[in-house]
Amino acid sequence: MPSSHLLLEEPIRMVSILEPSKPSFFPAMTKIVGTLGPKSRSVETISGCLKAGMSVARFDFSWHDPEYHQETLENLKVAIKSTKKLCAIMLDTVGAEMQVVNKSEKAISLEANGQVVLTPDQGQEASSEILPINFDGLAKAMKKGDTIFIGQYLFTGSETTSVWLEVSEVKDQDVVCIIKNSATLAGALFTLHASQIHIDLPTLTEKDKEVISTWGVKNKIDFLSLSYTRHAEDVRQAREFLSKSGDISQTQIFAKIENVEGLTHFDEILQEADGIILSRGNLGIDLPPEKVFLFQKSALYKCNMAGKPAVLTRVVDSMTDNLRPTRAEATDVANAVLDGSDAILLGAETLRGLYPVETISTVGRICAEAEKVFNQDLYFKKTVKYVGEPMTHLESIASSAVRAAIKVKASIIICFTSSGRAARLIAKYRPTMPVLSVVIPRLKTNQLKWSFSGAFEARQSLIVRGLFPMLADPRHPAESTSATNESILKVALDHGKALGVIKSHDRVVVCQKLGDASVVKIIELED
């Protein structure tokens, strides 16, 4: 496995501390997924998030009801219209998540070295002595000495709001635990995690299915974040469910790897999923701390070579309450980019953090700086070697387009695509310039009515590093003539000029289909 320093330019160009970052329509090639919640659901705040660089909005169904999330989504639609920024929608399932239920919502104080009982009897009221949970099989899975971690919503890792427990004994369906640190749990819901224990709960729960088939279908979600994915079969079952759920058969499934069981079956999961989310909050509890970086690098490398988007979570936890990240967090974000992340997912930082817009902006700036020293040449050679020969026709065209763009110092690559696959393959080779993915709509029918595809494919590129979508005019469908393609190319070039990424005398590499052939051409722009 290559270490991250191999993906740096040698030597690293030392940038003056006073050198300003150039403003750009593309703040960074690396994408940012923002979780919308109590502190980030107004039209004003969401507009700020979009302008700061958020390209995917995540809706976490571990908490609150569909009506609440629908209100937030309606605000997102207004913000998209006013800012003219595209944004995809991600639905995050609850999955096999164990939860402590605190119906009274009173704060619960737990003292170090004290004792607390976890019980499946949800009729009990949560207190310092007893915590009711939503799973009746915990006692069967636990034994003396096992470790349990409890935190609010998403793990903060802060010792004052999260608690470590050690199992001292199992009594029937109850689990008696020793409290390892003092903490105060506040709120209605806390997530419970048992380290390296198989929990016999379905990956796609009945509640998840109901939410997907109602809220998901109604809003035509672009991505399904499949929490607690442990086997490839989990992904297959979710895909089968989506295929029977109306208009969301095109929804991409991102397998969320949250425990050792998911890591053990990582290769088979990657084969089935459309992308991977490395949920480092839970992984950091399930794995020894010294092993986390190794699994991160290994997983990102595999995703990169497979050409599937990799998303990393839990990078700037301290920005939930502070305007600046710690030095370690800033370095962590940069290393995520150098290791090959397509996107950074912000959870608590935007969901209930005090500075959602500033957090997105800060993470975007760090990503942009790291991208400047990413060793594309070495990465390209490594990827070509991994793919091997003979390459598939499309892979050959994609790698050639990137090679040509770098050789002629093109300012942008324009790729004509209908499924989005060609553009994603170009992005797989991590070109140093943006890839404008011009999605050509396809005319399709369900025997009752005709409609154009393309919107899904355009939005789904919003999670891929370096890929920026543009939906072509539906009056020019995918089966049109070369004359039509030329008119679409002119629109794409004008779009690039308007955004400030293409200037006079710039070179542009264009990848398009002409009849049965795929063509890579270089255009030098006139005045």
From TrEMBL:
Keywords per UniProt: ATP-binding, Glycolysis, Kinase, Magnesium, Metal-binding, Nucleotide-binding, Pyruvate, Transferase
Entry's EC annotation: 2.7.1.40
Gene3D superfamilies xref list: Phosphoenolpyruvate-binding domains, PK beta-barrel domain-like, Pyruvate kinase, C-terminal domain
Keyword presence, Methyltransferase: no
InterPro entries per UniProt: Pyr_Knase, Pyrv/PenolPyrv_kinase-like_dom, Pyrv_kinase-like_dom_sf, Pyrv_Knase-like_insert_dom_sf, Pyrv_Knase_brl, Pyrv_Knase_C, Pyrv_Knase_C_sf, Pyrv_Knase_insert_dom_sf
Annotated ranges, domain Pyruvate kinase C-terminal: 395-514
Pathway field: Carbohydrate degradation; glycolysis; pyruvate from D-glyceraldehyde 3-phosphate: step 5/5
Cofactors named for this entry: K(+)
Catalytic activity: pyruvate + ATP = phosphoenolpyruvate + ADP + H(+)
Molecular function (Gene Ontology), one example: potassium ion binding
rRNA processing in keyword set: no
Domain Pyruvate kinase barrel positions: 30-360
Top-rank taxon, per record: Eukaryota
Top-tier EC class: transferase
Family stated for the protein in its record: Belongs to the pyruvate kinase family.
Protein name, UniProt field: Pyruvate kinase
Biological source species: Psophocarpus tetragonolobus (Winged bean)
